Amino acid sequence: MDSSSYLIELHHLSRRFGPVEALREVTLQLPPGRIGLLGPNGAGKSTLLKILMGLLPPTSGSGRVLNQPIGASTFGLEAAVQLRRLIGFMPEADALVPGMRGVDYVAFAGELYGLPRKHAQRRAHEVLTYLELEEARYRRVEEYSTGMKQRVKLAQALIHDPPLLLLDEPTSGLDPAGRDAMLRLLLELGRDHGKSMLLCTHLLADVETVCEQVVIVYQGQIRGQGSVRDLCARRHDRYRLQLQGDLAVYREELQLEGVKILHDNGQGDWRVQVPEGWVTRAFFALAENHQVIVRGLQRDDESLEEMFLRIIRKDSSA
After folding, report:
1. HSE-up (13 A, CA, CB side) for residue 3
2. Which of 61, 120, 155, 244 has its CA at a distance of 20 to 30 angstroms from the CA of residue 112?
3. Has residue 107 got a pLDDT over 70?
4. What DSSP letter does each residue of 192-242 carry, written as one string?
C-alpha cells in the first residue's frame, strides 16, 4: 500500500512525561477502516489519541494521520488545527456545557471545527435527526439521559463530516439496550457511510461487534496488530458442540475415547478438547449409537479475550 493511502502511519513515536515513558518507539501502519484500540489502564492509549489529534506533541518520532504530518519537528498550531478538522473526537467524559440546548451545543462544536454559523446550525439539525435526537434537540443537555448524552457527544464528533472518528469508550455507562444501539450506529457509520474509526475501549465485545482490525497497546508499546482472525490462534483440538438427547451416556463414551469436557452449560452446549488424531465424524458416530443429536459443531478457536490475555500475560512474564 502506498504511504499516502494509510489512515495512520507512525514511525518510532515516543512520548515522555519526565521520567515516565508513556509511549516507546511506536511504529504502526493502519489502512482506513474500523479499528479497535485495546489495552489496560495506563497502557498509553489516551496519550496516543492526544498525539493523533494534534493536542500533544511526541517527544520523538514522526507520523502522518490522513496524510497530515505529526511529529516533534512539524507540531504547531496551524498544523494541529488543520488536522483536527479532519477528525471527530468523542470523549469518554461528558464534556457538555450546562444550560445549552442540544442543537446549540452541536452547532457550537461545528463552529469550533470551522463551519460557518448557518451551516453549523443546519448540520446540527441533520445529525441530531440521524441519531434519533430530533425530539430532544431543544432540551438542555444536562437533562439528557446517559444514552442521549452519548449520542449528543457522537453528534458533535460528526457535525463537520470528518473522515476519521476517534471514539473513547463510546458505550461507557450505557445499559445493554443503549449499548447495542450505539454499536449498531457505529457499525452503520463505518460500513454504510465510509467512516474510518479508532475505537478505544476496555470492552472486547464492542471491538468484536464493530471493528475489522485490532491494535493492542501494553506498557507504551504495540504488542499486536491485525484482524481478529489473524491474531487469534487457530485451534485444531477444541470444538464447540450443541447437543440434544441422553448426554450422560454420551459424555462417558467421549471420555473413554480421550475427549475432555472443558465446559458444559447444562443445556447441551459443550466445549471439548480432543486427542491427537481425532476425526470430527466420530462425534456423530458416537451420537448415533446413543440416540443423541448433534445440532451444531464448530471449531473452538481462540477468542479475542483469550488472545488479549495471552499477549498481556506473555509480556508480563517476559
Report:
1. 8
2. 61
3. yes
4. TT--EEEEE-S-HHHHHHH-SEEEEEETTEEEEEEEHHHHSPP-SSEEEEE
Helix (H) or strand (E) holding 92: none
Residue 54: φ, ψ to 5°: 80, 15
One-letter amino acid at 141 equals V
Task: Tell me the backbone φ, ψ of residue 144, rounded to 5 degrees.
Answer: -75, 150
Which of 229, 162, 166, 235 has its CA nearest to residue 200? 166
N- to C-terminal Cα distance for the chain?
A: 33
- Rounded-to-integer distance, Cα 33 and Cα 198, Å: 8
For residue range 109-121, what is the model confidence (pLDDT) as tens digits?
999 999 999 999 9
pLDDT at 283 over 90: yes
User: Which of 28, 33, 61 lies closest to 199, judged by CA?
Assistant: 33
